[in-house]
Amino acid sequence: MIFNKLEVIIEEIRCINCERLLGKVLREIRKEIEIKCTECKTTHKYILEALEAQTT
Question: At 13, phi and psi to the nearest 5?
Fold first, then answer.
């Protein structure tokens, strides 16, 4: 079977401080979201197109 054309690439979003998995998104999605980590209680702003995070 050939899966190359149907392959979906999923990126993981992890907390910058404690490396806890916060969620998974498709690589093609271009959004800006804020997530609060339930483990260390810090809020991060994620820009999914570049997969960068900034502490707020």
Answer: -105, 120
CB 22 within 8 A of CB 15: yes
The answer to whether the pTM exceeds 0.85 is: no
**Are residues 19 and 4 in contact, defined by beta-carbon separation less than 8 angstroms?**
no
The DSSP annotation for 15-33 comes to -TTT--EEEEEETT---EE
Between CA 34 and CA 19 the distance in angstroms is 16
pLDDT in tens, 11-24: 888 888 899 998 88
